[in-house]
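Is adenosine-2'-monophosphate placement plausible here? Inputs below.
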Amino acid sequence: MLNRIIACVREAGKIMLDARDIAQSTQNKQGIGNFVTDYDIAVQNALGDSLRRILPASRIIGEEDDGHSGDLSGDCFIIDPIDGTANFIRGYQHSAISVALLKDGRPQAGVVYNPYLNELFSAELGKGAFCNGRPISVSERTMPEAIFLFGASSYSRETTDKNFRIVRALFDNTADCRSSGSAALDICYVAAGRCELFFEMTLSPWDYAAGGLILSEAGGIATDMLGKPLSYTHECSVLASSLSLHEQAVGIVKQAL
Ligand code: 2AM
Ligand code: CA
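Reply from A.M.:
I modeled the complex. Tokens:
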């Protein structure tokens, strides 16, 4: 199953690599800094077709769909056709396709693919996490040694004060921080031990469903910022880290609230 999903995702990645005149194909969605391009739609449609051929009875929930009924019964693919759309539009070359397969609401497989670096992160429940087929695991760095990644949730400005209070608190307890515009890749970078923590105030299931499974299979954990399980039907905050740092990270966040 995982290999068939990977083949679909790699094929769809060619649409991103072949994209031209992206700015001309861009429309604003609701909120500041929230965009969609014709390529987001093209990747989503291509994935919808190819994934449905693998599991014809599956439900497909994508970022560029009209809505999400909240029904996660049976097999369900949650897709972000391009995570890091703003990067994609600007030629920043740090974006990914994210596909998760859930069974009755629980993630079974996840794939996150950055076609620019040809890096494909993948995991299947209980079978470990991989980058281009090689096993990955979270780092053993301590909190003072940690680099944390964060998203500013620029599209929901009512949470900006709270978001940056938490970012400040994390910064005071760690070595450094980065913000690079793709939550899916950020979570995979924690899974691969490149960085130790990821935090964002408001994300949607397609941003983290695949990355969350890849991280847990790599020895980490992704929860909301209070340490509660992630929602796969609604937006929520995400706090992702190695298992050893997670309790401490939740404590830092709670103190900052
Ligand atoms: P996107 O590029 O697929 O939209 C950057 O902070 C992260 O937030 C990216 O993963 C981005 O995903 C995501 N993001 C952007 N707009 C969003 C929105 N309105 N709701 C939830 N997540 C969003
Ligand atoms: Ca997207």
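Short version: The longest strand covers residues 75-83.
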